[in-house]
Amino acid sequence: MTSTNAVHVLGIGGSLRAGSQSERALRIALDGAAGAGVTTELIAGPELVLPFYDTSLEERHERAVRLVEAIRRADGIIVVSPGYHGALSGLVKNALDYVEDLRDDARPYLDGRAVGLAAVAFGWQAAVTTLEQLRTITHALRGWATPLGGSINTAETKFDEAGGASDEKSVRTLRLMGTQVAEFALSRAGH
């Protein structure tokens, strides 16, 4: 857990486009976590533009250092990726590859942390397969994928700037997923 009593949830995702549909979905999920009584942090879009992950390099770009330190501090994580051609975005995948830098930590990788996952794509096939890939990656990184994940089809659901969406069910799903991450982290911290 974090060095203070505050339980902290990190959100990672979005796309290079500021205010993208996937970033808006991530913000809704983080609001759900915050509503459960945890602090939250967002690393999205341009902040995820990192050099390709390379295990042979010891020096890291300042944005990569910030990402790794934020993951290290996090008691729970929420990842939302756009679905591109049936898969998660290279931007999000590369960010998740940097979790390898935590391999020698007392809490290696995502060990002991709940990870909420959602995929946002124009069509059900890409949304569902992207969510499945995010779950596989989370398990490989020793994270606990929340029971509820989100597959959001933007052909049917549009997110707005006010923190809502045209489909209330999608909003409820994302908020509940964020709440599950927070509740798991709070229970692990003994709150």
What is the compact description of this entry?
The chain has 191 residues and is of the alpha/beta class.
Notes on the structure:
The protein is α/β, with parallel strands linked by helices and 191 residues long. It has a single domain, classed as Rossmann fold (3-Layer(aba) Sandwich), CATH 3.40.50.360. It contains 5 helices and 7 strands, in the order βαβαββαβαββα. α1 crosses α5 (168-188). The chain starts with 7 loop residues before the first strand and ends with a helix. The mean pLDDT is 95.
Please supply descriptive tags for the structure shown above:
single chain, 191 residues, seven-stranded mixed sheet, 5 helices
Topology:
Elements: E1 8-13, H1 21-35, E2 39-44, H2 62-73, E3 76-84, E4 87-88, H3 90-97, E5 114-121, H4 124-140, E6 144-145, E7 150-153, H5 168-188
Parallel strand pairs: 1-2, 1-3, 3-5, 5-6, 5-7
Antiparallel strand pairs: 3-4
Protein name: FMN reductase
GO cellular component, one term: cytosol
Domain NADPH-dependent FMN reductase-like: 8-147
